[in-house]
Amino acid sequence: KQEVTQIPAALSVPEGENLVLNCSFTDSAIYNLQWFRQDPGKGLTSLLLIQSSQREQTSGRLNASLDKSSGRSTLYIAASQPGDSATYLCAVYTGGFKTIFGAGTRLFVKA
Amino acid sequence: DTAVSQTPKYLVTQMGNDKSIKCEQNLGHDTMYWYKQDSKKFLKIMFSYNNKELIINETVPNRFSPKSPDKAHLNLHINSLELGDSAVYFCASSQETGPLGSQYFGPGTRLTVT
Asked: Which helix (H) or strand (E) holds A53?
C-alpha cells in the first residue's frame, strides 16, 4: 500500500532563507509526483509536476527533485518570502486514477 | 475566469439531513474527482469520474453518491449526514488519461455537521 510522508510537519524560517521540504513514498511504482500549495481556508494550487522519467522541475524560485528509486522528492524554495507561507503538499499518482497525498508541511516565513 | 468552482463554500447542517455539493469545471477535462480533507489535513480521494463513468470508489459509505450530469459537472450527494462527515470537500479535474498531468482543484466546501 502506497504511503506518502512529509517532513517536517511544520517549519518556521526567517525571510530570505533557502529551505527544503521533504516527501517520501513507500512504493516507487509511480507515474508522477506533484507538489501543491494550500493557503488557509482555500483550495490547492499546483506548483510543480514531475513525471516518473524526470529528475527535476523548476518554476521561478521553486525546484522539485525526484529520486524514484529511493522514494524521495524534495521541494527547494530559494530566497523565501512571507508570501510563501502556506501548507505544501506532495502527492503521487500510482495509476488507476488514484492520487495519494501526504499530510503536508506548514511553512511560516517570518518578515 | 474560474477553472474549477464549487458551491456552496460553507455548509452547516444538522445530523440526519441530506445535502449536495456542486462542482463545475470549464477546462474541458474528462476526469473529475472528489476528495475529503479531514481535521488532520489528510487529503483522501473519494471518487473519480471519467467520461461520466465511475472509475474508483474508495471505502466511502454508500451515503455518499457522486452524480455527473455531464462532463463538466460532478456533484456530491450526502444522505443521512453524520458528525464524522464534517470536513472540507474538494473537487478536482484532470485530463482524460488520468492525472498524468496536473490536477486542478476547486476552492473547497467546508461542511460542518452539528
From this structure: none
* CB B90, CB B37: distance < 8 Å: yes
Give tens-digit pLDDT for A80-96.
999 999 999 999 988 77
Nearest CA to CA, how far is B1 from chain A (Å)?
A: 15
Which residue in A has a C-alpha nearest to residue B37's C-alpha?
A: A103
B108·A104 Cβ contact <8 A: no
| A38-81 residue pLDDT tens | 998 778 888 999 999 999 999 999 999 999 999 999 999 999 99
d(CA A31, CA B30): 19
> Counting beta carbons within 10 angstroms of the beta carbon of residue A101, is it exposed (0 to 12), middle (13 to 18) or buried (19 or more)?
buried
pLDDT digits (tens, 9 = 90+) for B77-114: 999 999 999 999 999 998 755 555 678 899 999 999 99
Classify B51 as helix, strand or coil.
coil
How far apart CA A9 and CA A87 sit, in angstroms, is: 9
Residue type, position A102, single letter:
G
How many Å apart are CA A33 and CA A92, to the nearest integer? 4
- The answer to whether B61 faces chain A, any CB pair under 8 Å, is no
> What is the amino acid identity at position A18?
N
